[in-house]
Amino acid sequence: MIKSELVARIAEAYPHLMHKDAERIVSTVFDVIARALADGDRVELRGFGAFSVKSRPARTGRNPRTGESVAVEEKRVPYFKTGKELREKLNDEPPGGG
User: Fold this and answer.
1) Are strands 75-82 and 49-56 parallel, antiparallel or unpaired?
2) Closest CA to 42 of 29, 31, 52
3) d(Cα 90, Cα 84) in Å, to the nearest integer?
4) 67 falls in which pLDDT band (50, 70, 90)?
5) How many DSSP H helices and E strands does the chain contain?
6) Least confident of 11-15, 31-35, 93-97
7) What pLDDT, in 10s, does the model give residues 40-63?
8) Phi-psi label, residue 67: left if phi above 0, alpha if psi -120 to 50, beta otherwise
């Protein structure tokens, strides 16, 4: 599912919301999560999961085309850990949400 599909489903589920309002809500939620992670905070959505940031240390990588060694700088990457309810839902329901 892509962002526009999520917006469309929300607008469909809540007909009193205009499509542009649903789009604004989704964008705002994503922006707040991204800003919190950029600030080093952890974002926990009970029953769904938790977003956090992990640091990857600097390392020596390889250019796949030439095989040459390349220095890869330390970087921060987003990390998501599923919540218990989401894990159970994924493992208890048949594929397709039956």
Assistant:
1) antiparallel
2) 52
3) 10
4) very high
5) 3, 5
6) 93-97
7) 999 999 999 999 999 999 999 999
8) left
Distances (CA, A) of 28 to 4, 20, 21, 58, 81: 14, 12, 10, 33, 22
Predicted TM-score (pTM) of this structure: 0.76
95 confidence band (pLDDT: 50, 70, 90): low
The CA–CA distances, whole Å, from 68 to 2, 56, 57, 65, 74 equal: 37, 21, 20, 8, 19
Q: Give first-to-last CA distance, the chain, whole Å.
A: 17
